[in-house]
Amino acid sequence: MKTFLAFALLLLCAAGCGSSGGTAATAGGARSEAAPPEETSRPKEPSEAPTAAAPGSWASLRAAAGTAAERLLIPHGPPPEKVVVRQLRAGKGPGLKKGNGFRANYMSFDYLTGRRVEMDWEGESVLFHYLYGSTVKAWTAGLKGVRSGGLRELIAPSSWVYGNGPRVYLVKVTEIKR
After folding, report:
1. Spatial separation of the C-alpha atoms in residues 58 and 53, rounded to whole Å
2. Among 84, 78, 74, 82, CA closest to 23
3. pTM (predicted TM-score)
4. What count of other Cβ atoms lies within 10 Å of the Cβ of residue 73?
5. Is 57 helix (H, G, I), strand (E, B) or coil?
6. Considering Cα of 72, then 170, then 164, then 114, what sign does the dihedral take?
7. 35 pLDDT exceeds 90?
8. Are the C-beta atoms of 174 and 125 separated by less than 8 Å?
């Protein structure tokens, strides 16, 4: 009997959740330098395209970007189809190219919720090798030419980040090794 009641409650909730609430604004997504559209708080029906977290939920991203926060693209609306790159701070020295090693601190955020997923922001930076196919596809495209000290925001679709859902990365390159 408990199983039947739980199942009935689940069906009732599922039927009622998609019938109320507003609609998401759509002003172009995160495909360009322009601000993407906002999201509603209601659960998404399977036929709807996913939208990102409300702009106010990105406090961790803004805090990590520090003085560069005003340059961030705060994602909302449908995820982009390709990686969107935003240089928040220029670095110095030669740019990153194929075959270089580099050290970086980074954070990643779930595009749909705004919650931090990964963090290696404080302390010693992590060593990576910039070879096509050796880092996440979004990093290969988004970090090309970055200089030591550079800070970039990358907004990437799920297919560019291991298929675990769209992500927003904040990457601070601390050193480039030739």
Report:
1. 8
2. 78
3. 0.68
4. 19
5. helix
6. negative
7. no
8. yes
Using the structure block, give the residue that is written with the tokens 């005003």: 70
% the chain with pLDDT above 90: 42
Residue 149 CB neighbour total at 10 angstroms: 15
Q: Is residue 53 scored above 80 in pLDDT?
A: no
50-177 under CATH 3.10.50.40, yes or no: yes
The kind and range of the H/E element at 14 are helix 2-17
Helix (H, G, I), strand (E, B) or coil at 146: coil
As a whole number of angstroms, the distance between CA 131 and CA 98 comes to 5
Task: Indicate the length of the chain as a whole number.
Answer: 178
Non-local CB neighbours of 80 within 8 Å, separated by 6+ positions: 29, 30, 31, 155, 156, 157, 166
The rounded distance, in Å, linking the Cα atoms of 147 and 95 is 5
> What are the domain boundaries of the chain?
50-177
Amino acid identity of residue 16, one-letter, is G
126: three-class secondary structure by DSSP: strand
Beta strand segments in 20-131, E:
84-89, 101-110, 116-120, 126-129
Q: How far apart are CA 178 and CA 164, in angstroms?
A: 32
